[in-house]
Amino acid sequence: MLSPPDVTLDERRRRFEELYAVNHVPILGYVLRRTDNTDDAADVLADTFLTAWRRLEDVPAGPSARLWLYGTARRVLANHPRGSRRRLALADRLRAELAASYHPPEQVGELAEITAVFRRLPEADRELLALTAWEGLNPSQIALVLDCSPNAARIRLHRARRRFAAALTQPRAAAPAPTQVTNGDFALTQYAGLPR
Amino acid sequence: MTDSQVAHLAQAETMAALAEDITGTIAAPRPDAPALPGGRRPRSMRKRLLIGVPVAAAMAVAGLIATSVGSPGQRLGPVTVGPPKAQAAVLSFTRHGRFIDVIVRDPVAGARKYRAEFARYHLDISLGLVPASPSLVGTLVYESLPAGDGGLRPITAVGKCFTGGGGNVCPVGVRVPVDFKGAASLVFGRAARPGEPYETTAAATAPGEVMHGMTYVGKTVTAVLAMLRARHVQVAHYVVENSRCMNVARRTVPRRWHISNADPWSPGEVVLWASKTWPVQVPKCASVGLPAPVPSPVASASGGAG
Predict the structure, then answer these.
(1) Whole-number pLDDT of residue B219
(2) For B9, phi and psi rounded to 5 degrees?
(3) Which H or E run contains B99?
(4) Containing H/E element for A158?
(5) Which of A70, A82, B139, B224 is the most buried (most CB within 10 A)?
(6) C-beta neighbour count of A173 within 10 angstroms
(7) Phi–psi pair at B260, nearest 5 degrees
(8) What are phi and psi of B193, to 5 degrees?
(9) Which of B52, B19, B65 is nearest to B130 (CA)?
(10) For residue B171, what is the enclosing H or E element?
(11) Rounded Cα–Cα distance for residues B76 and B50 (Å)
């Protein structure tokens, strides 16, 4: 017979394991689509699920859990200095495996151009478009990730699409160079020849 | 890169180990001791954050760095340096411009003493000590920082130590902004008492560990036991993956089985991961929860905008 604290811990652990089993791949995907630095990706994944474990009571049930995790990963990524030397020992093994197995997708010709334009968009626009196209979320779901109202998400998405479409039709030289290199801009720095 | 491509980047075993390590961190209620027989020992409390430095090196470096400690009663930013006896006790506090460098002078002093010493400087910083495998003794193994990290930075020294991973850049303390606000928690590794399980471990083969330099992966239990005997190392227990993808602990395994992994357990003791087959076959049940593929990034980004 288990005492109540054991039941609570077991129950908590069981819930986390379910959450992790269903979501660790999508969350790693989310992170790797935003940074090509596999060391950072391993840390951000570990940190995101560490947060989930510590705040398990705040994680919504059902499909919304993944949206909560996307939102958390987004904040972790934003707060994680690129190429940070502060590493989670937890992520050592994953870091080593990702370094060996991950090869950033090569983009040439038109795809490279589109990618470059996309990466020059403001971060907020990029994230809205990415959540739609890469994670396949609708505005209501995006609202949960970004912690805004569905209506606001819808309007911002509309504006982001317009800006992206406009940027795609502009000559490349007219596009402003990024003033700040943030997480996820690894590919852009390569493209633009900026120091990493 | 789609999620289905991502799913192949890391082994299911690695991802499962990460989950297990996460559920063993200190944010959780403290898990009970080793699960023998049959239970998983939550790798709980074991792998933790950060890096490493042996006590001797930490002490030596502390001696090098902590040369300009403020004199008693002198103000260091918002704080006043305490009496010489207190400030020399377990930590040293040295003002460098807008920062205070806190160097651990006595890595086995005890959390209460550290806390008291930080409190004397009006800093809400707690230091903990957990039993650590030999190469991590005296190292910073966990940190919990306020949002935005409060500007705390580990202080490192190059070439003064080995880390478990073979590096030589080691933390010896922490640099605190003079205007630091919020609460932080730092945990250092300490030496374990005989029989006391480690809560944080480096690779069993890392310099300073009992299996340093040993080549054991894939060898039979018989062969590995012979190598361990030569070094007077005991096996605390074996870990075997069952058909439900759960790691279970066993006191013994057939001698012809193979060893796939090892972890320091307590002074002079290791845990061995054993497998009936070699190479280890990853059970099907390990890869759960793969989502439907999503479109590749660039193609769909352009589509989304069109």
Answers:
(1) 95
(2) -80, -30
(3) strand B99-104
(4) helix A150-169
(5) B139
(6) 5
(7) -105, -20
(8) -80, 160
(9) B52
(10) strand B169-177
(11) 28
Question: Beta strands B183-190 and B234-241: pairing type?
Answer: unpaired
Do B185 and B142 form a contact (C-beta atoms < 8 A)? Answer: yes
All residues of chain B having their beta carbon less than 8 Å from the beta carbon of residue A25 are 3, 6-7, 289-291
Q: Which pTM does this prediction carry? A: 0.44
- Separation of alpha carbons B60 and B138, rounded Å: 12
> Collapsing DSSP states into helix, strand and coil, what is residue B63?
helix
Helix (H) or strand (E) holding A131: helix A123-133
Half-sphere exposure of B137 (CA within 13 A, CB side): 23
Looking at residues B267-287, what average pLDDT do you find? 75
Residue listed under structure tokens 């919990």:
B144
Cis preceding linkage at B154, omega within 30: no
Beta-carbon contacts of B40 under 8 Å, excluding residues fewer than 6 positions away, are B20, B246, B247, B248, B249
Query: What are the distances in angstroms from CA B296 to CA A37, A64, A161, B2?
Result: 18, 23, 18, 5
Q: Dmax of chain B from CA atoms?
A: 71
Question: Which tops the pLDDT comparison, B4 or B35?
Answer: B4
Q: What are phi and psi of B273, to 5 degrees?
A: -90, 125
Q: What is the CA radius of gyration of chain A?
A: 19
Cβ–Cβ of B148/A79 closer than 8 Å?
A: yes
Nearest CB to B303; choose among A79, A105, A133:
A133
Q: At what angle do helices A64-79 and A38-54 cross, to 10 degrees?
A: 130
Which pLDDT value is given to residue A8? 73
Cβ(B212)–Cβ(B164) below 8 Å: no
For B276, residues 6+ apart whose C-beta sits below 8 A from its C-beta are B254, B257, B258
Instruction: Write out residues 43-72 of A within 8 Å (CB-CB) of B.
Output: 45-46, 49-50, 53-54
Q: A53, A69 in Cβ contact below 8 A?
A: no
* Phi, psi (rounded to 5 degrees) for B172: -125, 0
Question: Where do we find the tokens 């990460």?
Answer: B18
Q: Report chain A residues whose CB lies below 8 A from the CB of B27.
A: 50, 53-54
How far is residue A36 from each of residues A131, A185, A192, measured CA to CA in Å? 17, 8, 15
Residue with the two structure tokens 């499909």: A63
CA distance B267 to B261: 18
For the stretch B101-131, pLDDT in tens is: 888 777 667 778 888 888 888 888 887 767 7
